[in-house]
Amino acid sequence: MNNRITGALLLGVLGALTLFSCTKDITVAQPPYTNRASGQCFIEPDSVPVLYLNATVPYFDPAVKKTNWSYGTL
Amino acid sequence: MKILFLCIACLSLAFLCAAQRITVNGYVKDAASKEILIDAIVANLADHSGTVTNQYGYFSIPVKTKDTIALLFSFAGYQSVVKKIASKTDIQIEVLLVSGTALQGVTISAARNDDNVKKPQMGVIDVPVSAIRELPALLGERDILKIIQLLPGVQQGAEGTAGFYVRGGNIDQNLIQLDEATLYNPNHLFGLVSTFNVNALNSVKLIKGGFPAQYGGRLSSILAVSMRDGSKTKYQGEAGIGLLAANLTLEGPIQKEKSSFIISGRQSYINLLLQPLTSNSTSYAFYDLNAKVNYELGNKDHFFLSAFRGNDNASYTGANSLNYAVNFGNSAALLRWNHIYQNGLFSNTSLIYNDYHLQLGTSQSNYYEVLYTGVTDVNAKTAFTASLNNNHTIRFGADYVYHTLFPGTFSAKIPKKGNLLNINKDSIERRFSNEIALYANDDYQATDKLSLSYGVRAPFFAASGKTYFFIEPRLTLQYLINTQTSVKASFTQMNQFVHLIANNTASLPADIWLSSNALIKPQSSTQYAIGLFKNFMDNDMEASAEVYYKSMQNQVLFKEGTVLSLTTNLDAQLTFGKGKSYGIELFVKKRFGRLTGWASYTLSRTDQQFAELNFGKAFPASFDRTHNLALVASYQLSKHWTLSADFVLTSGKPYTLPAGKIIAYDGGSLYDGYYYDYTNRNNSRLAAYNRSDISASHKKEATLFHKFHFTREWIFGLYNAYSRDNPYFVYLTIDPLTKQPQAKQVSLLPIVPAVSFNIKF
Fold first, then answer.
1. What pTM was estimated for this model as a whole?
2. In this structure, is the dihedral angle defined by the CA atoms of residues B646, B651, B653 and B658, taken in order, positive or negative?
């Protein structure tokens, strides 16, 4: 089943959504979470492999910024 | 096997106990239309023993031989009748009860059914069709499945839809039958309206636990819906028009008091509403048709031929000539024969064909793709009921089903016309299987206070060279504390051989049915329940508290990350696990008088555990709701006006929320620049759901041209009367200004007014 079929499946619901639905911002409680170590490694031909080490943060944590990243080369 | 032999031995003993008695049997019918009355009370005034008519209106009561026997016949809303019978041999009678509406100025004082206390049955709820007619309905379409959702232990599916979950069982664990024919998808309009046309219905019964042995094939519930036979005395009809559809029902005698017919149809005209809003880009139409004829050959044979067809057809044309089309529906045909043998032995033999199909198509320019999935069953069964003496009612029979399943087939052909390809079903993949079950069950009144229903069902299933055979013991005990109070306990084992593999998007009809094979083992369940049942105010009010525990094995879901478009072997994408559900159900119902209705509350928990999902840890099922409260009331304000209302409050639906995140350094723009860390499946819940619906109906008799007498009825209703924004789903996004995660809740149905008009002539 590809995306088109999925689209056909959702035809009725989307139609109803178009006619009746409303969307609003809500506040969702953050699930319990403990930060975990994260590693992202990029290996490309003719490039120096790069490993980025960091720690995950809770999903709704606003503190995460790119500048917090630490990285190094192998 | 020991259990089987034990049950057969007990049943044989019961046969031997029948002596020095005669059997009075026959049918109880409405005097005006000769329509059968289901669950009418038959009481022997000599010893206060009794029975009720079965789903075919038939009763059989053994009585001691004496000069004159006095039997009381009673049914809610009808005048009771005492029949005096003088016979030394078995005798068959036909009892006609006069409806209260036909007795102007007469107060009906009928004996009231107290089966809920005195019968060894648990988890059985009869929903009067008259109650369904009075309660609020979404868009004015009266719907039995919406009423079923308001019962204890039953959980509604998505907002506004007719899907339901019973005691922690998935939606496919409900066996839904119309006149004994299985309907695999009893929905119109993607579930907003069910296929059941209330005008054609006689009775609705939900069984959710303590299953007698005659029921099997599903783990969680049996919803048995029966059609009316049609008046045998006069021609009459009903017609109605609402916001979505119009309906017409005609019935009458073919040969007076011998045979009759009923035909009832419903056709939507949603297109008229859609066209101004969608500029002809969207069309939707549905219809359903019920037809039935019956013929009484003498007083011992009764033949029925009935048919049903319901279908939905939708299409949508988007930008760049991209077309979608959907067609789905059910068909069923049934030939049934009731026969009364000597000693009141009653048989029901049926030959049934039913078919469900779903076609989805998309096309653009020269590209075309279609999915076809469906089920076709040929079913033959015979069932016998014998009342041996006042203490034993024996049921035994056999049930055979030949399943043909079309799990899902894609085609790239281009249709010659229209948006949807006509598929030759012989050319696509099919899976065949045979399901046979033998059963025997005895309702045994052991003492004045203790009665039990015990039996065994033995299903056998064969498909693709693999066979399965099970013994399913069934037991329900009932102990009468006093005439108004009893405690009951039940133990049930069930097996299921066809499975709905749920699509994880929504309860849409694209869900695919698969039968068991070497890889897909049958689902099985063991259920224990205990309950206290009490009636008040001369059986006007009934109350119950039931506690249940159900364990389920071989539950089926798709593996994590399954993309069906990339799948050529569905079986390889399945994962198997177990589930358990437990809870307490409280129920209070007021059955008679100007104010009727009920309150139900369920406190429950349903967990599932799969080795390949959620790191092997248990997680709440997507249909788990901790609290489920429903209040339903109908009040007859005056001779013409009836007001009704309901209120629903449930815990929110579980869903999976990412718990952590990490910025993606490269290539993460697809996910707003983040990778997400999911720790637990269904780790969060939508906000609690609550809604109230109200309606008012005005009914009045009228005459046209001084000759044409009819009853007209206006119904005004409000769905979601205080227009609460109930959550349909939640999605996550990144706020473009603050760059912070934001949850957004989508609500589907605000306040929806409805008006409909019906006439009965």
1. 0.85
2. positive
